[in-house]
Amino acid sequence: MRASWIAGLSLLIASIGATAAFSADYKQQPTPYIDTAPLNQPRSFVSELRFGLSAQDPWGNEGRGTSANLTGEILFAKPFTASDLFTSYFIPRPHLGGSINTGGHTSFAYAGLTWTFDVTPSVFLEGSLGGAVHNGDTHANPGLVAADKQALGCSPLFRESASVGVRLSANWSVMATIEHLSNAGLCTQNRGLTNVGARVGYSF
Q1: pLDDT score, position 188
Q2: CA-to-CA distance for 192 and 147, rounded, in angstroms?
Q3: CA 101, CA 99: separation in Å to the nearest integer?
Q4: How many CB atoms sit inside 10 A of residue 156's CB?
Q5: CB contact at 8 A, 196 and 55
Q6: How many C-alpha atoms does 109 have within 13 Å on its Cβ side?
Q7: Mapping DSSP to helix (H, G, I), strand (E, B) and coil, where does residue 58 land?
């Protein structure tokens, strides 16, 4: 499964989802994720589960093979609620996730915070910040780094991601995601790792 094929699949899934969602707007509006439940009302501890595929580093050394990443993520409920919609957008959801490479390249686990902003009732934008631990190459000497590996320098790394998503219903959504891992120049080597892919989410 080549990186370019996975990237194309991501765009296809997002496009199909967008077409379906915009058509659904004329029939029934999906409900955006806004945690405004009263404090005395029980809330689910887990907000959303996500899974998908991503292309490993399509612009770097690790994207030269035919491997792909299997990805999974758990988003937890917001730690507190806001009385108005605008303020609610700026309260993040904590997350835990992981990416397993099927070809023996870099795999990692991560944690952080996610912010979700609604463009329409169906379309949303998302950003996240956090950290990740990995099993990739941490050699300080570039000569010791394999030709098909990225020189990540150290572990843990910083992780950032951005997504464009479409809600297909009150529970299901699809999204195209790009993520980047790097050490921000804190270690000798800092090539970083950038993955792109598509995910499916189920909200509780």
Answers
A1: 85
A2: 15
A3: 7
A4: 16
A5: yes
A6: 2
A7: coil
Q: Among all chains, which residue has been given the structure tokens 């499916």?
A: 200
Backbone φ, ψ for residue 6 (5° rounding): -70, -40
| CB-based contacts of 25, cutoff 8 Å, min separation 6 | 120, 121, 122
For range 56-71, the mean pLDDT: 87
CB neighbours of 2 closer than 8 A, spacing ≥ 6? 66
pLDDT tens digit sequence for 101-143: 999 899 999 999 999 999 999 999 999 999 999 999 998 787 7
Query: Dihedral angle at the C-alpha atoms of 139, 145, 146, 149, nearest 10 degrees?
Result: 70
Q: Is the pLDDT of residue 36 over 50?
A: no
For the stretch 64-93, pLDDT in tens is: 777 799 999 999 999 988 888 788 889 999
d(CA 9, CA 176): 10
